Amino acid sequence: MGRFLGLSAWFFTLLRKLLFLYVRTNVIGANREQLGLDPHKPVCYVLQYSSLSSRLVLEQTVLANDLPSAQRPLRTASGVQRSFVFLYQRQGGLFRQRPRPTLTPRFQQLVKAGLVDDTRDVQIVPVSLFWGRSPDKENSLLKILLSDSWAVAGRLQKFLIILLHGRSTFVQFNQPLSLRQVVEEFPDNRERATRKLARILRVHFRRVRQAVIGPDLSHRRTVVNAIIHSQAVRTAINEAVERDKISRAKARKHAQHYGWEIASNFSMVTVRLFEVLLAWLWNRIYNGVQVNNIQTVRDVATDSAIVYVPCHRSHIDYMLLSYVLYSNGLTLPHIAAGINLNMPLVGPILRRGGAFFMRRSFKNNPLYATVFNEYMHVMFARGYSVEYFVEGGRSRTGRTLQPRPGMLSMTVRSFLRDHRKPIVFIPVYVGYEKVLEGRSYLGELKGRKKENENVFGLFKSLKNLRNSFGRVSVNFGDPIHLSRTLDQVKPDWREVEYDEDYRPQWLTQAVDTLASEVVTGINAAAAVNPVNLLATILLATERLAMDESMLAHMMEELCRLLKAHPYSQNMTLPSGTGTEWVAYGESMGLLHRQQQKLGDIITVEGNNAIFLTYYRNNIQHLFALPALIACLFQNNNALDRDRIRFLVGSIYPYIQSELFLRWSVDEVDKVIDQWIDVMVEQDMLSQQGQVIYRPVPGSAQAVRLRVLSRCILQTLERYFIAIAVLRKHGPGKITAEELEEQSTLMAQRMSILFGLNAPEFFDKTLFRNFISNLKGQETVTTNAENKLEYTTGLDDVAEDARLVLSSEMRQSILQVTQLGG
Q1: Are 454 and 340 in contact (CB under 8 A)?
Q2: Which residue ranges make up each domain of the chain?
Q3: Pick from 243, 277, 526, 814: CA 20 to 30 A from residue 553's CA?
Q4: How many CA atoms lie within 13 A of 659 on its CB side?
Q5: Distance of alpha carbon 619 from alpha carbon 641, whole angstroms
Q6: Following CA atoms 410, 416, 422, 423 in sequence, which dihedral angle do they give, to the nearest 10 degrees?
Q7: Cα(522)–Cα(516) distance, rounded to whole angstroms?
Q8: Which fold has domain 619-710?
Q9: 82 conformational bin, left if phi > 0, alpha if psi -120 to 50, beta if neither
Q10: Phospholipid/glycerol acyltransferase domain: from which residue to which, for each copy (predicted)?
């Protein structure tokens, strides 16, 4: 008997090694610590379907990842078996199988063993295995025959599947179940205990498949036909006939053309080609791609339709996110792309990679708007993952832009029509140490005409792949459940029936709330890197220069500040030391070293100063509150806590709106107190009773406080410019649009006169947002002639600026404002 078992083990090993001459696997979760395995308890792996090839892959995977072997003996009710079981087995001969799979005897014996010996526990580890990760396509016979489907495959079919998909096999290990905990509910009923464990595992495998592969894909023609035959589109066609005086056939042809123009044409072959190409590209241009908080996405992907909402800093964003998701075992999203990318050759490739195309404007074309809305509804109702950018376009300044409501509104309206499938938004922060489009951004920030959004801009950025673009971080934020947001805005929203045309009065409020949650979630997942820190400190110096050792120390101090009071649990900080970060920035070509006997001086030269404003702006929101506090002590020796809370609190609503800070106005006083305590602990401030004092002028602590204050100082100067322009004209003399235009010109003039290397200082959209917030806070109002009125409250705001801005800066702003008149 022993000789037979030895021969069997030898033959099994031979088969395993032969199989892996061809098969290649991508493995997720095969880590002892990640799984939390108890070394004192036996482990039993559970695969969904009985298959020799799956057993071979399992054993190869556990051995390669230093997990307990699946070939280990495991005692069960009927004796000793291996440390694995299949949930279902195939019935019938070579070409026959039962339409429904049957529980395996070994699985039933495992449950019986748990009932017989209630002192012995077994860790049951579910293992999902997919030969290829191509979603099944409806109405495709070849796909049905040669895909790793829900059904139990026959032997011939399995051979063909391995031959076709074996090079892209995916294996995912999940958290173990306790056999004892599952069966102890039914100590005297083996059948019910077996059914319960089988049901838990069946649901688990189904949810993993949903997350990894997603729902079955309809053929593009099927989707377009379904949209054209929907009630909403048929109504829109009838309206087009009446409105445009065309035949019904022509109107229907227009609708069909729009459907084909919009719809994606997902192809797994294209995805795999992209995977190979992008893996090469990332290794070529980046020093690494760091992914954080991906488990959050896996947790919600099992039973929800996901909307990925990343920040938009580069054309690389959508390709990078798709690559990260696919590499981590998650189904690829369908990506909203501008119609300008639907070019010959490029468009079809992107479409096969999951892109669907949308026009920049839906105005004056209600038929197109209806077709697009119906397409989005089909995506969400069927549970597909979707990705779009709420900012609309790429940020040229490094800040998160004001969200646009269009796509969010479509998503909310679709969910109101059919909310059986939960929709969850996942904010994604993509942090670069060097953006590929940096040169084009630099030209635009200097006044060159903005380049159109097109893929050729990316190709031009890739012309020199020998340059290093540093590391890139992809941080996933906390999930935003759409149903919970609607509950906050309209608790009884489920009690109303919504059709495709119904727009409730509270829809705008719901979309605005959702937009705020999304961009706040993006910023909360910020990734701090050495380039961000270098930019923040060097741009705060008078001459863009600092002693190397002091610079290294200051970078470490800023990191300690964020560690002492983290902005959020999803924020990430760099590893290493300040000295290493300075050397890294130098190797990236962003710094210049001037050697000096008393210690080298690090400077920023040429266009790099403007480059660095982009990276400083990426993380400006993280330091906004402590920087506001620091600003107060540039002109004041001491302030009591109440005064600090009042002054920072009065400015906070404007900063919050501009930088999408996560704390509400009601809770910010508590956060201000926490920051004061941290700054006292870090020796940036001192305290006696309720009075807070600044450090001794010229000390190292004073330098740190000054550097911190300058993180936000230019924003406050910009606010003062707008107030100064408004007060110069007087109440009822100027419109909001005129104030925006004049403030922008004044800021641009100051930027030239005082050598400010910060293009966002005269960004028109930032002035527009500030003026809008002045209205929202009722500091200014609009009269019947659309002119801005204000009361003495604005004078109070200007007076408070005395405590924040130096007298020299206030006089400079007032002087420029008067000369500009």
Answers
A1: yes
A2: 2-212, 221-524, 619-710, 713-820
A3: 526
A4: 27
A5: 26
A6: 20
A7: 10
A8: Arc Repressor Mutant, subunit A (1.10.10)
A9: beta
A10: 306-433
The CA-CA-CA angle for residues 455, 459, 461, to 5°, reads 115
Annotate 662-711 with three-state secondary structure.
CCCCCCHHHHHHHHHHHHHHCCCCEEECCEEECCCCCCHHHHHHHHHHCC
CATH topology of domain 221-524: Glycerol-3-phosphate (1)-acyltransferase (3.40.1130)
CA–CA separation, 405 and 400 (whole Å): 15
d(CA 510, CA 490): 8
Rounded-to-integer distance, Cα 561 and Cα 556, Å? 9
Nearest to 714 by CA among 616, 642, 606: 616
Based on the number of CB atoms within 10 Å of its own CB, is 208 exposed (0-12), middle (13-18) or buried (19 or more)?
Answer: buried
Where is pLDDT greater, at 498 or 153?
498
| CB 692, CB 640: distance < 8 Å | yes
Helix (H) or strand (E) holding 126: strand 123-131
Cα(516)–Cα(653) distance, rounded to whole angstroms? Answer: 13
Whole-number Å distance between alpha carbons of 533 and 581 = 9
Alpha-helix runs per DSSP H in 74-145:
105-116, 141-145
Q: Rounded distance, CA 131 to CA 125, Å?
A: 19
The one-letter code for the residue type at 697 is P
Output the six-digit token pair for 430.
């993509």
Residue 765 CA to residue 749 CA, distance in Å, equals 17
Say which DSSP state 396 is in: S
> What is the maximum span of the chain, computed from C-alpha positions, in angstroms?
102
Q: 263: Cβ–Cβ under 8 A, 6 or more apart, which residues?
A: 220, 223, 224, 356, 375
Residue pair 162/217 in contact by the 8 Å Cβ criterion: no
Residues 6+ apart with CB under 8 A from 713: 627, 631, 805
Helices vs. strands in the chain: H and E counts, helices first:
34, 25
CA distance 378 to 386: 11
Q: What share of the chain has pLDDT > 90, as a percent? A: 49
Q: Supply 210's token pair.
A: 């949903």
C-alpha 477, offset from chain centre = 6
Residue whose entry in the numeric block shows the structure tokens 């996110």 = 321
pLDDT recorded at residue 188: 76
How many whole angstroms separate alpha carbon 518 and alpha carbon 527? 17
Contact 398, 613 (CB under 8 A): yes
What's the CA gap between 428 and 299, in Å, rounded?
16
**Token pair recorded at residue 530:** 């050495």
- φ, ψ of residue 571 to 5 degrees: the values are -70, 145
258: nearest Cα among 413, 375, 387: 375
Give residue-wise pLDDT tens across range 70-122.
998 887 666 778 899 999 886 655 444 444 568 888 888 888 888 777 667 89
Distances in Å between the Cα of 660 and the Cα atoms of 400, 508, 522, 569, 718 are 8, 19, 9, 16, 17
Give tens-digit pLDDT for 13-61: 898 899 999 988 989 999 998 899 998 899 999 999 888 899 999 999 9
Instruction: Give the residue among 769, 754, 763, 740 at the shortest CA–CA distance from 811.
Output: 754
User: Tell me, what DSSP letter sits at residue 69?
Assistant: P
Question: Could you tell me if 376 and 414 are in contact, meaning their C-beta atoms sit under 8 angstroms apart?
Answer: yes
Q: Are strands 177-178 and 355-358 parallel, antiparallel or unpaired?
A: unpaired
* Res. 155: pLDDT tops 70: no
Predicted confidence band of residue 476 (pLDDT cuts 50, 70, 90): very high
User: In DSSP terms, which residues pair with 289 in a beta bridge?
Assistant: 472
Q: Between the CA of residue 147 and those of 57, 127, 137, 141, 792, what are the distances in Å?
A: 18, 19, 10, 10, 72
Task: Identify the burial level of 805 via C-beta atoms within 10 angstroms of its C-beta, where 0-12 means exposed, 13-18 middle and 19 or more buried.
Answer: buried
Strand pairing of 592-594 and 601-603?
antiparallel
Give yes or no for a contact between 439 and 460, defined as CB atoms under 8 angstroms apart.
Answer: no
